[in-house]
Design goal:
Blueprint: E1 7-11, H1 15-27, E2 32-36, H2 40-51, E3 62-65, E4 76-79, H3 95-110, E5 117-120, H4 125-136, E6 143-145, H5 149-163, E7 170-171, E8 190-191, E9 194-195, H6 196-202, H7 204-207, H8 212-230, H9 235-249, E10 254-263, E11 269-280, E12 283-287, H10 294-315
Helix pairs in contact: 1-9, 3-4, 4-10, 5-8
Length: 317
């Protein structure tokens, strides 16, 4: 019996798209990676470079330049193409151009008969994911934004550094917008199963006084700290994207904070927002509703209101 060929297409072969492809093939996640870009020579260059890696990897992943017409049998399409922010802009400032790019991509892909999953990376990711959902007509479980997956990883790194522990031993989520308004439900942060508030109290000599608002702000701004030094970010978001892909292709039922459509969860409706989600072969199978404090819920609602404002602006165009 021959098993189904697992295929992932990446639209946009810039640094994020190419890093995602590299992470896919070095981890041996799928059988085939299709690179799609309006600049076919750039896409071909990336494909050639990636193919030259195969000798030193653990499997011979097929890598090719593709087109939208070939997307019918693709399992997952990753959209990384978009408008990068210029100095002084926020992710939200790139909405108009990113939306135009997303529309041209999704319209072309859906004409192929595609019925798989979209993973949206392009910023502002929550609004663009919502737009892709509307354009595609796919079930809400099939359209996922990377959301606060990378922000949560950054938060866990910061906490791990404070107490000199592996960040994978930290459980923490950043939620809401992948942007300045995101929030952290500190009541659900744990280090090795121990509540963060108790860790701080018991380790004053190791970490000193910790300003939680400042730590949350540093988490939201971490991407800009990278951007200001090297001009963009790509390794972390590529790793997060591949983590989401693995959870879907391997039917892992893994909980990752991604952007998904809320339909009553946390009292929110009609908005894509970063929340912990159970991911498996169905895509975004289920939103995990953690019990936040009243103050945390207010911050989460405020962040969602920011997302809604921009969704409204996009809908009115």
């Amino acid at each position: 019996m021959i098993s189904k060929n697992r295929k992932v297409a990446i639209v946009g072969t810039g640094l994020v798209g190419s890093s995602t492809a590299f992470s896919l093939i070095t981890q041996g996640v799928c059988d085939e990676v299709v690179m799609i870009d309006i600049n076919k020579e750039k896409a071909l260059g990336e494909v050639m470079d990636l193919k030259h890696c195969i000798e030193y990897l653990n499997r011979n992943t097929k890598i090719k330049v593709g087109s939208y017409e070939e997307c019918k049998d693709v399992d997952i399409i990753v959209i990384t193409a978009g408008a990068p922010p210029r100095p002084g802009q926020t992710r939200l400032d790139t909405l108009d151009l990113s939306a135009k790019i997303a529309k041209s991509i999704v319209d072309s892909i859906m004409q192929s008969g595609f019925k798989g999953h979209f993973i949206v990376v392009s910023n502002p990711v929550d609004i663009i994911a919502h737009y892709v959902y509307k354009l595609s007509g796919l079930p809400k479980s099939h359209v996922i934004g990377t959301g606060t997956s990378v922000d949560s990883a950054r938060l866990k790194n910061f906490i791990g550094d404070l107490f000199n522990v592996d960040p994978r031993s930290v459980q923490a989520y950043s939620m809401g917008e992948h942007g300045d308004s995101q929030m952290v439900p500190w009541s659900h942060v744990y280090v090795g199963g121990k509540p963060f508030s108790k860790v701080i109290k018991d380790n004053k000599d190791r970490a000193g006084d910790i300003d939680l608002d400042k730590l949350a702000m540093e988490t939201a701004q971490a991407g800009w700290e990278v951007y200001n030094r090297k001009g963009t970010t790509y390794y972390a978001i590529a790793a997060a994207t591949v983590g989401i892909i693995k959870a879907i292709l391997n039917d892992e039922n893994k909980i990752i904070p991604v952007s998904t459509l809320l339909d009553g969860e946390y009292g929110e409706y009609g908005v894509f927002s970063g929340v912990p989600v159970v991911l498996n072969s169905e895509g975004a199978k289920e939103v995990v509703e953690i019990e936040m404090t009243e103050e945390e819920l207010k911050k989460f609602k405020k962040s969602n209101d920011t997302i809604r404002e921009y969704i409204s602006k996009l809908n009115n165009k």
